[in-house]
Amino acid sequence: MTYPFALAKNQRGSPLDGTGVCPDRAVHANLTAPALVAHALRRDEGTLSADGALIVRTGVHTGRSPQDKFVVDEPATTADVWWGKVNQKLAPEKFEVLKGRVQAYLQGQELFTQDLYAGADPARRVRVRIVTTGAWQALFARNMFIRPREEELAGFEPDYVILHAPRFQADPARDGVRSPTAIALSFSQKLIVITGTEYAGEIKKSIFTVMNWLLPPQGVLPMHCSANVGPDGEVALFFGLSGTGKTTLSSDPARPLIGDDEHGWGPDGVFNFEGGCYAKVINLSAEAEPEIWAASHRFGTVLENVVADAYGRLDLGDGRFTENTRSCYPIDVIPNAVPAGRGGQPRNVVMLTADAFGVLPPIARLTPAQAMYHFLSGYTARVAGTEKGLSAEPQATFSTCFGSPFLPRRPEVYGHMLAELIARHGADCWLVNTGWSGGSYGVGSRMSIRHTRALLRAALDGTLAKGSFRREPFFGLSIPEAVPDVPAEVLDPRQSWGDKAAYDATARDLLARFEANFATFAEHVDEEVKAVALKAAA
Ligand code: ATP
Ligand code: MN
After folding, report:
1. What CATH code is assigned to 3-46+62-218?
2. Could you say which residues bind Mn(2+) here (predicted)?
C-alpha cells in the first residue's frame, strides 16, 4: 500500500512511516501505559491521583470544537459528503499548507506514536497510527482504541494517520481554517490533522467520523450508541447525545458490556469500534456507578480536568475547570466487558434523551415509524454540556442520528439503514428520558438512575412488552401502565408535575420545536414516518 505523503518513501520501517514526518528528536513508538505515564510525569503533562490515575488539564478547550472541524473538498469524495455546518469545506491547497506546516512543526518535537485498530470486527477494522506531541494523548489513544496483539504490530501499515499537534496554532489566513484550532479530515489522503486543542475527545471522534464515512458503502451502519448483552445473548443498543446516559446505563453488572459509545451494525451483528471507555465523571457516585468509579481510581486511566487535593484524592463534585470532566480507561477494566467487543443482532434499540423540559415520559415504546422519527430528530435538552458556549439554562438540541457532528454523509443514509435493520431483525424500540421529571430544570429533578435502570431492566427482559400501554396525547407515545420497582406516578410525566397547565404548555412548546426541526427531513422519509409527526400534532 502506498501513502500520498512526500516523505513517506524515506521513512520505510520507522514509526513515522507513512506520516510525512522526518523526526529530529526522540520518537516513542507503541509504549505501554506505564512508560507513557512515566513520560507524561517527566514532561510535566499531569499528576498522579492517590490511586495512580493520570490527571491532566486540557486548557482552554474542555470539550469538542465543532465549529473548527473541516473536511477537505476532494474530487473523489465531494459528491458524497454532507456539506454544511457539520462538514465545512477546506480547499485542498489550504489543507496542503496546513499539513506541511504541521509536519514541519512535528519534526522538531519529541513524538509519541501508537498503532491501534478501530473496529472489533477484523473484516471491517481500520488501522490507525497516531503521531502526537503529548505522552498523555498517546495514552488516551491507547486506552480508547483497540490495542493490536504484539505480533500484529510488526507488519502494521496504517490505513489512517492522525497528525496530532495540540500546541500548534493554525493560522486562518494561511491555512484556510477559522481559528488556531483545527480538526481537518482528508478522506482521499486518509489523513487527519488536529491543531490547537488538547481535548482528547477530538482524537476519538475524528476516527468515529472516519468509520461513519467508510462503513455505509460496506453495508454496515455506524452508530453513536453503547451496547450490552443480556443473559440469553440478546443485544441492546443505547443511542443518545452526550450526557444522556449511554456510558452510565450500559455499564450494568447483569449485562456484559460490548462497548461504550460507537458501534457498527451489519450482517454479522454489532461490533464495538473502540477498545476503551470515555466516561463523564462529574458527580460520579460510587454507589450508582460502581464500575466507572473503580475504573477511574486505577493506574493507567486518564482523568481529564478532574480536580484533586494535594494528596491526589479526587473531588468529582468539583467542576471548576469544566462540567465535562472525563475518565478514559481500557474497556477490559470493566469487570464484565465482552472481550471480543462483538454481539449478535440487537433485540432492543433504546433511544436516550435527557429532556431538561421534563416533558417526555421516563420510558415509552416506539413503533418502527416513531423510532425513525426520533432517530432523525436526535433530541435532547441539556443544562450544561460538553461543547463550548452552552449556558446554564436548558437548551433543546436536535442532533440528527444522535450524532450529527460525526456524520460525513447525509443523515438519510444512516436513517434508511437503521429502518431497514430494525425491520429485518424485528427489534423492539424504546424512548427513555433520563432527564427531568416533576417539572422542567429548576423545578423538577433529574430522574433517578435507579428508576431508569429498573425501567430498562423491564424493557430489555421482555416484561414491559407483555404489559399494557396507554397513549400519551402530545407525542402519541405508548407509556406502560406499570413497571416493577417503579412508582406509577413516575411513569406519566404529566402526573409528576404539580402544575398540569404548565405541563401542557411546556409539552406543546416542545412539540412545536420537534415539528420545526423535522421539517427538513419530511421529504426524505416515507409516509408512515411523516404520519408520526402529524399524528403527534393531532
Ligand atoms: P457522551 O456521548 O458524552 O459519552 P453519554 O451518553 O455516555 O455521553 P454519560 O457519560 O452516561 O453520557 O452521562 C450521563 C450523566 O448523567 C452521568 O453523569 C450520570 O451520572 C448522570 N445521570 C443522572 N441521572 C441519570 C439517569 N437517570 N440515567 C442516566 N444518567 C444519569
Ligand atoms: Mn459516553
Report:
1. 3.40.449.10
2. 205, 224, 261
The x, y and z cell numbers of residue 483, run together, are 413497571
Residues whose CB is less than 8 angstroms from the CB of residue 71 and which lie 6 or more positions away in sequence, other chains included = 81, 83, 87, 88, 89, 90, 184, 185, 186, 187, 408
pTM: 0.93
Q: Mark whether 399 is an active-site residue.
A: no
Quick one: pLDDT at residue 538?
Answer: 53
CATH class of 221-266+345-537: alpha beta
Kindly report, residue by residue over 146-189, the tens digit of the pLDDT.
999 999 998 899 999 999 999 999 999 999 999 999 999 999 99
Question: Residue with the nearest Cα to atom 3 of ligand 1?
Answer: 242
Is the CB of 274 within 6 Å of ligand 1?
A: no
Burial letters 298-327, b for 16+ CB under 10 A, else e: eebbbbbbbbbeeeeebebeebeebbbbbb
Catalytic, 205? Answer yes
CATH 2.170.8.10 residue ranges of the chain are: 278-331
278-331 classified as CATH 2.170.8.10: yes
CA nearest 130: which of 222, 44, 18? 18
Q: How far apart are CA 169 and CA 252, in angstroms?
A: 42
Residue nearest to atom 13 of ligand 1 (CA): 243
Could you tell me if the CB of 205 is within 6 A of ligand 1?
no
Query: Is 77 labelled a binding residue?
Result: no
- C-alpha of residue 401 to centroid of ligand 1, in Å: 18
Stretch 354-378: mean pLDDT: 97
DSSP 524-536: GS-HHHHHHHHHH
DSSP state of 120: S
* Ranges for all domains in the chain classified under CATH 3.40.449.10: 3-46+62-218
How many C-beta neighbours within 10 Å does residue 251 have?
24
C-beta separation of 236 from 347 below 8 A: yes
Alpha carbon 67 to its chain's center: 17
Q: What residue spans in the chain does CATH classification 3.90.228.20 cover?
A: 221-266+345-537
Query: What's the pLDDT tens digit per position in 382-406?
Result: 775 445 555 566 889 999 999 999 9
Q: What's residue 475's pLDDT?
A: 95
